[in-house]
Amino acid sequence: MTKNLIPLALLSLVFYACTTTRTEEKKVPVSYTTETLRTESSGGCASDTPCAYYAVTYPVFSGLDTSVSVALQKSIDKAVSMSNPEATGQTMKQMGDGFIRDFEEFKNDIPEFSAGWSYKADIEVEVLTDTLLSLSVQEEYYTGGAHGGHGVYYINIDPRSGRQFTLDNMFKPGYKEPLTAVAEKVFRQVRELPDTASLGDNFFEFPDDQFQLNENYGFKQEGIVFFYNNYEIAAYAAGPTELLIPYEELKDWLK
Question: Which has the closest alpha carbon to 54: 140, 169, 134, 178?
Answer without folding.
Answer: 140
